[in-house]
Amino acid sequence: MAAASGDDCGVRQMLRVLRVVFFKEAYNLLRDRRALFWLFATPLLMPCLSVVGGSFLMWQIARQTRGGLPVAVVNGEQISELILELEADPVLRLVDAPFDVEGALQSGELMAVLEVPPDADERLRAEEPLTLTLTSGRSGWLPDLAAISIARALQGYESDVLEERLAQRELSRAWMDPIRLERDTAATTGIAATPPVGEQAPSMLGSLFLFMVVVSWVFSSSLPLMADMTVGEKEHHTMEPLLVTPASRVGIVMGKIALSIIVSVVTIGMWSLNSLAYVLFLAFMPSDLGSLAPPASFRVGGLGLVLVWLLLLMLPLMVMVNGLVAAVGTFAKNQREANLFAGVLQLLLLPGTALLTIFGIGATPPPGVYALPMVGVLVAMRDLFGSGIAPQTLALTWGAATAYAVGSVLLAAYVFSREWALMRGV
Amino acid sequence: MIQTQQLTKRFGKLAAVDSVSFICRDGEVFGLLGPNGAGKTTLLRLLATVLEPTAGIALVDGLDVRTEGARVRARVGLLVETAGLYDRFTPREHLRFYGRLHGLDGVPLERQVEAILEMLEISNFADRRCEGFSVGMRRRVILGEALIHDPPNVILDEPTAGLDVMSTRNVRSLVTRLRDERRCVLISTHLMNEAQRLCDRVAIIHQGRLQAVGAPADLISQTGAANLEEAFVRIVGEERLRADLWKQERKHRGCRFWRRLRGKTDA
C-alpha cells in the first residue's frame, strides 16, 4: 500500500496534469473518426478537390477546343481585318456559313455565327455606326466560350478602327478620355497588414469580411469540441472518477483548453495554407484572367505579417472563449445545454460583436475600447487590416485579452471545483 | 482509517446525511446498509471529497476531507456505482491515465498496471477498446482505476450491482483480499446476505440517519431476528420502509406524469 503523491508541488503538479489530460483528450480525438472528419476533412480535401476539379476543367477545355470551335462569319469579306483577327485566335476555327445556320447552331455543328451587314465596308468608310449580330448556340458552355473569343477579337478590331480615325484627325487616345479618376488611400499608421502608401488598400475586404471569416474558422471547430470535452465527462459518467484523483482542477481544465486551441490553430493553419495556395495559384494565372486575382496588397508579401498578428491577437481570445465554454460545459447538465450555449456564442454573440465592431465603433475609438473583452481584439484586428494600429495600443489589446484569458481559465477551474456545477446531471 | 463525527450534508432543506458518526478501521470491512435513497452514496461522496460536508467532521487517515482534499484523494480509492469508461480507450490505457493523475509514471506505473490487470483478471482484454464491454468487464476496469494508486482506504459503492455470479464472487474475494492487506474497506450495499458474508461491522442508515452500528451477528442477536435482513427490517421499522417505497413510487409517477404531459405539449 502506498498512497500516491498528493504532496506534489502546486505548479509542477498542475503542469503534469495538464500534459496528462491533454494527451488523453488528444488520443481520444484521434480515435474519433467522425470528429476528425468534421474538423479536418474540409480544409484537407478542399485543395485536393480544387486541383482535381481545376485539372478536369482544363483538360475538358483543351479536349473540346482542340482544332478550334467552329464559327461562321456571314459577309466576312466586308471586314477582312476582322477575319484575320478571328483566324489568329487559337480557340476558334472559321468555317463557311452553312445553308441552314439556325439548324447548325441547334445541332452544335456551329458554335456561333457573326453576321456582318452587306454594306459594312461602305458604312465604315463613311464613318457611320455599324451593327454586327452575333448568334451563339445553347448547347453547354462551348458556344459561350466561342462568343467570348469573337467579342474579344471584335474589340481588338474596333480599337484599330478607332486609332485610325483619331490619327486621321491628329488626335491622341487621351482625347477620348477627358476626365480620369485615380483612387488612393491615406497612409497607414503604426502596424498594418496593408502597404503603408501607394496601392489601393482592400479596406472593404479587411474591415468587413476577412476577420469575420477568420473568427468563424477559429470558433466553428473548437467550441463544440470544448463543450464535448467537458460535458462529455458527465454524459459518459467519467466525471466522478476524475474528481476523486488528486489532480489539479486548473490542470484538468487547461489540458482540455490546450487541445481545443491546438485544434483551432491547426484548422486555421490549414485554411490559411489553402488561402496561400489560392493566392499563389492566382498570381501565376495568365494576365487576361487578372480579374480573378486578389488585391495586390494581399499577395504573398503581406500574408505572412497578417498571419503572425492574427495568431498573436487570436490566441488570448481563443483561450478566453474556450475557457467560457469550458465553464458552461462543466455546469451544463447535458450535451444539449452545452451546445445551446456554444451555439448562442458562435451564431449570435461572436457575429454580433463583430458587426458592432464594424458598424458601431468609429475609426479612432478611445483606448479603453481596446481593453474591452472580445470587442478590443476585433477592433485591433480591424485596424490591423485597415488604417493600422499603434504598437502601444496593440500591446494594450494583447495585455487585456491575456488578462481575460487567464480570468476565463480560472473561472472554468473554479466551476470545475464546485459541487453545484459538477453534480448537475451526475 | 475513516472516521466521521456528526457528519451532515444538506441539499436545501433536505438532509441527505444527518449527523452520522462511525469509525472504519484498517483491516476492517465496514458495510453501509440502507434502502435506496437512504443517503449511502452521498455519505461515500463526502468521504471521497466529491461533495463538501455542510457540518460535522470526516477524517481519512487523520486528514480532514474539508481542508486537505487533495491528500485525502491520494489515500482513497472510490468505486462509484454509476462510473463510466472512455469507450475509445483500452483498460490498460484507463489504468495508465488514472495512474498518471495520481502521480505515478514510468516503471512503477507499468508495474502497478500489470499487477491490477492480473489481480482483477483483466489481462485477456486489457488491450481491447472498452466499447461493447459487458457490465462485469466495465466494473472490473473501474475497480482497477480506483485501486491503481494502491490506496490504503477503499470505498466501494454497490460493488456487485448488476454483476453475474462469477463476477460477484470475484469482487467478494477481492474485498476479502483488501481486508487481508490491512486496508480500510467501506462498502455500501442493499444486499443483506452480501453484507452478512463480507462485512466485519455494518451501519444501518435510513433517511440520512444512522440507526444502528455493530457486527452483523450482534445486530441479529440484539433484535432477535433470524438473519440480517430481518434485523434490518426490525431496526428501521416495516412501516417506515413501506412509507419510503410509497414516496419513491409517487415521485416516480409524478415524473412520468410530467414527462408524458411535456411530450403531449411538444407534439
How would you portray this structure in words?
- The complex is a heterodimer of chains A (426) and B (267).
- Chain A has 15 helices and 4 strands.
- Chain A is elongated, with a radius of gyration of 32 Å.
- Chain A is mainly α and 426 residues long.
- In chain A, helix 10 packs parallel to helix 14 (391-416).
- Chain A has 2 domains: 66-175, D-Maltodextrin-Binding Protein, domain 2; 190-422, no CATH class.
- Chain A has a 4-stranded mixed beta sheet with strand order 2-1-3-4, covered by helices on one side.
- The two termini of chain A are 30 Å apart.
- Chain A has helices at residues 10-30, 33-64, 80-88, 101-107, 120-125, 142-168, 203-235, 239-243, 249-283, 300-331, 335-360, 367-370, 375-385, 391-416, 419-422; strands at 69-74, 92-95, 112-115, 133-136.
- In chain A, strand 1 (69-74), helix 3 (80-88) and strand 2 (92-95) form a beta-alpha-beta unit.
- In chain A, 35% of the residues are buried.
- Helix content of chain A is 65%, strand content 4%.
- Residues 3-7 and 289-301 of chain A have low confidence and may be disordered.
- By secondary structure, chain B is of the alpha/beta class.
- Chain B has 2 domains: 26-37 and 75-236, P-loop containing nucleotide triphosphate hydrolases (Rossmann fold), CATH 3.40.50.300; 239-267.
- Chain B has 10 helices and 10 strands.
- In chain B, the strands form 2 sheets. Chain B has a 6-stranded mixed beta sheet with strand order 6-7-8-3-9-10, sandwiched between helices. Chain B has a 4-stranded antiparallel beta sheet with strand order 2-1-4-5.
- Chain B is globular and about 55 Å long.
- The mean pLDDT of chain B is 88.
- Classes of the chains: A mainly alpha (426), B alpha/beta (267).
- At the A-B interface, helix 1 and helix 8 of A face helix 2, strand 6, helix 3 and helix 5 of B.
Report, as a whole number of angstroms, the end-to-end distance of chain B: 55 Å
Multimeric organization: heterodimer
What is the CATH top level name of the largest domain in chain B? Alpha Beta
Series of secondary-structure elements of chain A, N-terminal to C-terminal = HHEHEHEHEHHHHHHHHHH
Greatest chain-chain contact: A-B, 33 and 44 residues
Order of helices and strands of chain B: EEEHEEHEHHHEHEHEEHHH
- Quote the average pLDDT of chain B: 88
Count of the domains of chain B = 2
